[in-house]
């Protein structure tokens, strides 16, 4: 008796008039926005400027998409260039097929270009964006669910995903939801990197290296569950070998970097601190000008008040004061005359 399973969507695209809205594309787009949002927060916390992460992402994201597609097409070339296939399908990225290895590799090239244009060290940027990339992968993996692809071996577990499509050699049935496993693993990787970065003050690319190593560890066992066609080398899928090699490289980088460049960068974006200082000085000058203006206004108000009091004085009092002053002057004159005589 079936207690539960994860149903697959009947279709991965909804048409809004002539415009197709594809679930796979939405997952990728949402993932990119989340990565940029979290990367910006972490960049600001490191002392960088707001908007820098987004500006560099303008270079990194297109390069990453091209790199991810190239890796997929090259490693699964028979899907596009074998007999009976249409090579034009290699450009239909919305139908699925992005290799994370190519996306990270070529995306790093785009990020390097963006960083170089702004005078920013690439390792510092990579550390800031690393958890966001993991979350973007977690969201992007749900695109495979929309396309009913990249599932694992058959299972009767209550969280099995039910495949209903029979296209491209699929066999309807219940399978391990490897898209879900990898999505949850990537969320864990993001949390791990955030925690380790706060705890150990990771710098010089070590937060990014930790993300790579942790992701590869999960990808290795998840890849082992998949049943889609893949090239094998010595009994292991190509992506298993890639995950193993990249894992070793990431760990080696972590160890060597910690020895050669301990701690983290004190300045991640040249000029960011100066702009903050200039802003503070400008605010202080504005406050001083406001205080001076307030004092001047108070003095002017006091002068106007004294003038008003003088003008409002009773005429009788003024005449009395004038008469008293004249009498005093006459008395003084008489006294002087008496002394002389």
From TrEMBL:
Location in the cell: Cell membrane
Keyword Transferase: yes
NCBIfam families in the cross-refs: lgt
Topology term for the membrane: Multi-pass membrane protein
Name listed for the protein in its UniProt record: Phosphatidylglycerol--prolipoprotein diacylglyceryl transferase
One function term, GO molecular function aspect: phosphatidylglycerol-prolipoprotein diacylglyceryl transferase activity
Biased composition (Low complexity): 323-341
The keyword Nucleotide-binding is assigned to this record: no
Predominant localisation class: membrane
E.C. no: 2.5.1.145
Record function comment: Catalyzes the transfer of the diacylglyceryl group from phosphatidylglycerol to the sulfhydryl group of the N-terminal cysteine of a prolipoprotein, the first step in the formation of mature lipoproteins.
Alphabetized UniProt keyword annotations: Cell membrane, Membrane, Transferase, Transmembrane, Transmembrane helix
PROSITE patterns the record matches: LGT
Protein source organism: Streptomyces galilaeus
Transmembrane feature ranges: 21-40, 52-74, 94-115, 122-140, 179-196, 208-226, 238-256
PANTHER family: PHOSPHATIDYLGLYCEROL--PROLIPOPROTEIN DIACYLGLYCERYL TRANSFERASE, PROLIPOPROTEIN DIACYLGLYCERYL TRANSFERASE
Compositional bias annotation for Basic and acidic residues: 289-316
Recorded name of the encoding gene: lgt
Name of a matching Pfam family: LGT
Pathway connected to this protein: Protein modification; lipoprotein biosynthesis (diacylglyceryl transfer)
Similarity field: Belongs to the Lgt family.
Residues given in the record as a 1,2-diacyl-sn-glycero-3-phospho-(1'-sn-glycerol) binding sites: 141
Record field: compositional bias (Acidic residues): 271-288
């Amino acid at each position: 008796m079936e207690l539960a399973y994860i149903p697959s969507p009947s279709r991965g695209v909804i048409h809004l008039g002539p415009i197709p809205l594809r679930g796979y594309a939405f997952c990728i787009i949402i993932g990119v926005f989340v990565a940029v949002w979290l990367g910006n927060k972490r960049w600001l916390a490191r002392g960088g400027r707001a908007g820098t992460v987004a500006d560099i992402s303008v270079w990194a994201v297109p390069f990453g998409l091209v790199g991810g597609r190239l890796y997929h097409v090259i490693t699964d070339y028979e899907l596009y260039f074998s007999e009976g296939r249409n090579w034009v399908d290699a450009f239909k990225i919305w139908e699925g097929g992005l290799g994370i290895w190519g996306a990270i590799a070529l995306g790093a090239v785009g990020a390097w270009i963006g960083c170089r244009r702004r005078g920013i060290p690439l390792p510092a940027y990579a550390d800031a964006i690393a958890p966001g990339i993991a979350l973007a992968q977690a969201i992007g993996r749900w695109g495979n669910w929309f396309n009913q692809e990249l599932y694992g071996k058959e299972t009767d577990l209550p969280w099995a995903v039910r495949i209903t499509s029979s296209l491209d050699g699929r066999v309807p049935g219940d399978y391990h939801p490897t898209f879900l496993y990898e999505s949850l693993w990537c969320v864990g990787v993001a949390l791990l990197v955030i925690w380790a970065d706060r705890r150990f003050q990771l710098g010089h690319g070590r937060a990014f290296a930790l993300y790579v190593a942790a992701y590869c560890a999960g990808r290795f066992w998840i890849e082992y569950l998949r049943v889609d066609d893949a090239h094998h080398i010595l009994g292991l899928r190509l992506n298993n070998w890639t995950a193993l090699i990249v894992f070793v490289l990431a760990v080696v980088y972590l160890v060597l970097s910690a020895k050669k460049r301990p701690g983290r960068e004190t300045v991640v974006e040249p000029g960011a601190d100066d702009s903050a200082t200039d802003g503070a000085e400008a605010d202080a000058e504005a406050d001083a000008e406001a205080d001076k203006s307030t004092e001047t206004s108070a003095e002017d108000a006091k002068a106007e008040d004294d003038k008003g009091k003088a003008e409002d004085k009773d005429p009788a009092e003024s005449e009395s004061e004038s008469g008293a002053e004249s009498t005093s002057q006459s008395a003084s004159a008489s006294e002087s005359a008496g002394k002389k005589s």
